[in-house]
Amino acid sequence: MKVIVTGSFNPITKGHEDLILRAASIFDEVIVAVFNNVDKKYEFSLTEREKLCRAAFVGVRNVRTVSSDGMVVDLCREENCFLLLRGVRDESDLRYEKMMSEANKRFEPRCETLFMTASEKYERLSSTAVRKIISGNGSFIGLIPEKAEKCLVEILEERKGGKYEK
């Protein structure tokens, strides 16, 4: 059985990685789907976010990364996978994710959403916090997947045209 984990991953965090690796231990295939959300402003492009997610799961045989500007339900149809997995850190995440689940079901009745709670050590970690640290030239070590650190440094150095001190 396969599952799709959707998100903006702006950037991917250790919390995302934890959720996806937990899913990979349960499901035969985990599709990490990097999306653009019209309500969000992005520090990283869709291509950069997809690249970071791919780097994070190098060597994990049953995790595959895709990206899309479309609707989640369109990807579900394309992948012939109607099971979505969403991580929730708190009650406000759950309310939002429940609303999104209901909207997906309106567009595609076969869509079902499973919710997995965040591991306690990642409950307060967010992409927003990581972006703030990066913008202040702080260290993101331990906040994003280890396998994605080098990739993120390369992205940041390309932007600055020089060395990024993490």
Report on the structure:
With about 170 residues, the chain is an alpha/beta fold. About 45% of the residues lie in helices and about 20% in strands. The protein is built from six helices and five strands. The protein has helices at about 15-25, 45-55, 70-80, 90-105, 125-135, 145-160, and strands at about 1-5, 30-35, 65-70, 85-90, 110-115. The protein has a five-stranded parallel β-sheet with strand order 3-2-1-4-5, sandwiched between helices. Helix 2 (about 45-55) links the parallel strand 2 and strand 3. The relative contact order is 0.20. The mean pLDDT is about 95.
Subunit arrangement of the protein: single chain
Q: Note the total helix count.
A: 6
Regions with little confidence, pLDDT below 50 for 5+ residues: none
The total of beta strands comes to 5
What is the helical fraction, as a range of percent? 40-55%
Our Rg estimate from Cα atoms comes to 16 Å
Biggest sheet layout: 5 strands, parallel
Give a short summary of the structure.
The protein has 166 residues and is α/β, with parallel strands linked by helices. The protein has helices at 14-24, 46-56, 72-79, 91-107, 127-135, 146-160, and strands at 2-7, 29-35, 63-68, 83-88, 112-117.
